[in-house]
Amino acid sequence: MLLLLPKLKNLAILTFSIFFGFQLSFSQNHSPEKIKKQIEGFKKDSRGPYYRIQWFCNDGSIRAPKDYCPDDVGGIQHATYKPEIEELEDNHELYFGNILAYNEHETFWDSNHNHSRIKQYQIVKYLQSVDDGWIYRRGQYYRGAMQSEDEQEWGINFYQWVLDQNNISGNFFLLKQSLKDIPHSGDSNLAQKMRSESKVLAEEVASFMKIRIKIHGNPEIKDIQTVKDFVAANSSKLSTSQKQDFETLISTMTDYYKPIDLSTIQDKLNNFSSDQQSAISKLLSKYNNGLSPKEKVQILAPVMFYIRSNFDAFNSAKAKLSALDISNKLENTVFQNAQEWVPTSLKELLEKIDTLANIAASTGLIELWEYERIAPTLRQYQKANQLTITNLNEVLTNSRGVVEWSSLMVKANYSEIVETYMTFEPLAYGFIDDRIRSSIALDLGNSVSQLGNFISKKSAINNDVADVKKQATIRGLNPGYAYGELLVVQGSIDNIDFKKDNIYVFDRPPSGLKPVAGIMTVSEGNLVSHVQLLARNLGVPNAALSQDNLDDLVKYNGKNMFYAVSPKGNVILKTEDKMTSEEKKLFSKVERSSNKITVPVDRIQLDQTDILNMQDVGASDSGKLCGPKAANLAQLKSIFPEHVVNGFIIPFGIFRKHLDNPMKGENSSYWEFLTNTYKQCEVMKKESKSASEIDQYQFSRLSKLRTAIEAMELNADFIAQLRSHFQKAFNTPIGETPVFLRSDTNMEDLKEFTGAGLNLTLFNVKTENHIINGIKEVWASPYTERSLKWRQKYLLNPEYVFPSILVIPGVNVDYSGVVVTTGINAGKKDDLTIAFSKGAGGAVDGQIAETRNVAKDNDQLLSPSREPAYVSLPQSGGVEKKYTTFEKPILSPKNIQTIRDMVKQVRKKMPEQTGSDYRGPYDMEMGFKDNKLWLFQIRPFVENKKAKSSEYLNAITPKTNTNQKINLNLKL
Fold first, then answer.
1. Which CATH number is 601-810 given?
2. Beta-strand pair 62-63/50-57
3. In this predicted model, which residue has the larger pLDDT, 334 or 15?
C-alpha cells in the first residue's frame, strides 16, 4: 500500500482521475489534526520522539545502555522511538525517524513505494533546519541518541549498496540530491543551511527580511559583508542569542563561499580507472581560483557533464559515489559563480544560457536525451553574428523549457510526499522551492527572463501582468478574456470549491476542474488534456507562469481583475480600476449569453432499446443511437480492424427506458423528476430569483437524481442482453474479461462544443456486480455539478442530455496519449500535436506528458514527461499504480512514424467512409502495446473561434517583423 493512499472499496471501478488525484485518507485515530498535536508534543518533550537508549548487537540481541555488547560480537548504540512514532510508521508509512543506523538498506531505499523513505528523511532534515529542530527541538540534546560515526559509516555502506544495483540509471537526480542530506563523509548541504538560518533570523528580526530575500533568491559572496554591516548597524537592537545566530549564519556563509579545494577532488579521483582519472584531470587542469566567474563556470561545466554522461561506465559503487560527490562539490562552485557572471552582450547572454542548460543536464535536472534534443537550437549563436527574432524566440522557448523541466523534475521526485506532509505540517511546502532555488535552475531562470525581456522590446510584444517581475516567463496557452476575482492557490488544490466567475492561479490544473473564468498554471499539464481542450473550446484564457510569478501575484489574491490572453500568447492581467472602457464593454450581459446552443432532440432515436454490436454502428449514428465515442470507434473498427478492439454499445434508448421506471421515494418516474426540475427552474427565472439560488435548487435536485440512478434496479431484460453480448463480443461470460465503461453523451463533439472528459469512464471493471453498478454510475455522471456547469455554459435544453455507454476490453498499453492533427500552440496547420504518458489513460487528465509537435519531416520536443506514476491494467481487473523514470523518451522514432502513417489514413478514409463534409483536425486517443498502435477514440478537434478571432484579442498583439535580424554583439 502506498503512503497514506485511501483504503478504496472498489479499485475495479476507479476512474483514472480519481486514481491520480492522490486524495489522502487518515483513520479516525490518526487524522492530520491529531498528527499536528503529536508534533507539538514532541517539540516540547525533552527527548522529542526518542524513547530510550539501547545497545543493538551484531548477533541481533538488544541490551540496556550500560549492558555493552560483548567485544567478540560488537554493535552500536542509539535511541529507540516512542510508540507513537512506531505506530505512524507501521500503520501509515510516515517516517519521522532521523537515525539512519536503525534501517536496513533495502527497506530505506524503498523502491516499491517510489523511494518514499529516503525522500521523507530529506524532508524531515529540511523541517529540522527551518523549524528549530522540528520534532527534535529538545530531543536533539538527548545524549547518546545518535552516534555521528555510526551514521557516517551507515551512509557509506548504504550508497555502496545502492550504487551496486543495476536499476539506478533513472534515479541519478534523486541520488545526487540525497547525498546532500545523508551523512557519508561527503559534503553537507551548506546551501540549505544558509537559507534556513537566514529564514529563521528574518522571522525574528523583521528588518532583516530584505537581505534574507536576497540570500534566498539571488545569493552572492558579497552577501556576507551585507549581513556583517546589518549586524553592526543594528547591534543595539539585537539580543545576545540573535547576535550568536547571526555569527552562525556568517560562519555558514563563509564556509559556503570558500573556494573549491581541488586536492579533495584528487583524492576521490583515485577511485576511477586511469582513463577516467586522466580525462577529468585534463578538464580540471585549467582551473584556478584567479579565474573570472565566467571562466570558472565554463571550465567546470564539462567536468560535470563528463561525470553525468559517463556515470554508468564508472567501474564500481565506490567510484560512482566519488563521482556523485565530485559533481555536488563542483555544482556548489558553479552555482556561486553563475550568479557573478554578468553578460555584457546578447551573444554572451546566449552563451551563458547554453552553458547553464548543459549544467542542468549534468546535475540531473533534465535528462541527457532531452538536452540533446534542444542543444542545437541553443547553440545557434556559435555559427552566426546575427539571428532573427524567430531564431531568438526558438532559443527562448527551448531555454524556458529547460527551466520548467528542471522545476518539474524536482516536483516529480518530491511532490507526492510533500503534499502528504503538508496535510499536517504546512512548512513542508517550502522543501521543493528550497531544492529548486539551490539548483542552477535559479540563475538559468534569471538569464532566460533577461533574454525574454530583450526579445519583447525588440519585437514590441510585452506581457502586462500587474507588477509581476520577470514577466518574460509568462506565456499564453489558450486565447480568451475574463473578469473576476483572482484566487492564488498556494499548495494543494484538493479541497478548493471552484467558482465559475473566478480566475485561478495554481501549480497545476486538477483533472476535475469545474468551469472557471480564467486559469494560470505553473505546470500547464499538457496541451491536449481534457482541461486544456475544454478551456480552448469555451474560450477560457489560460497561461503558464513560473513559481516566482505565482508568488508575486499573491498580493492580488481576492481582488477583482481583468485577464486576457491573445492568440499569439501575450498576457494582460490588471486590477479592475485600470480597465479601459473597451475592456468593460466585453462583459455586457448580451455578449455573455450569446453562445447558447440547443441539443438536437429530433435526431435522437430513443426507441432503440437493444444493445448494439460495434459492427452494426457507424459514424452517422452519432447523436442518434449513441454518442460520438462509440459511433466513431465503431467506424474506426470497420476501417482499421486490426487497431481497434471488439466491443458493444448500450444506446441512449436503454437509459431513457430506465428513466420511465418509478423513482424510489418520489411520486414520479425518474424522467418526470428530471423534467419537473427544469420546469421549476424556469418558473424561478420568471420570478426573478437569483442565478445562484436557481443553481443551488437545480444542483440539489439533480444530486438527488444522481444518487437515485446509482441505486436503481436495472431491468431484467437488459441484464440478460448484457450477459449475452459479453459472450458474443469477448468469447467469455460476464465477469471474466475486464472492460472499460466509457461514458458517451449526445452533448459531446458537437461543432460548437467538445465536452471532453466531463463524464465518468471506469477502468478495467471485471466482476458482474461491479459492471452493473458501474453502468449506473456512468449513467448518473452527467448529473454531477462539474458536468452540469460546463454544459450549461452552452446548453439551452440540458434535460435532453442522454448517456450511452461504450463497453470495450482494456488494452494494458505500455504508453498512451492524445494526437491532435494540427499544430496547437506551435507548428502549422498540417502538423501533429502529440502528448503521451506511460500506462493507460495517458495525457488526458492534465498529466505532465511528453509533448511533441510533429511535422512531415521534423519532430520537435515541446516538453518531456514529468509524470512519475502511471496506471497499469492487470487481467485480474482494477488498476495498479506503478512508477517510472525519465531517462528515455516515451515515444520512439518508429512510434512517431506509425502515428504519422495512421493520421494520413484517417484524414483520407474518415471523410470517404462517413460521407462527412468535416475537413478539420481530429482529436485522437491511442496507445502502444509492444509497439503496436491501438485506437481508442476519434472526434473533431473543437476550438473557440470567437476567442481566436476577437477584435480585442487580436488588437492586444502588436504586429512584428519576425524576420528582423539582431546583431549578437549588441550590448545589453
1. 3.30.1490.20
2. antiparallel
3. 334
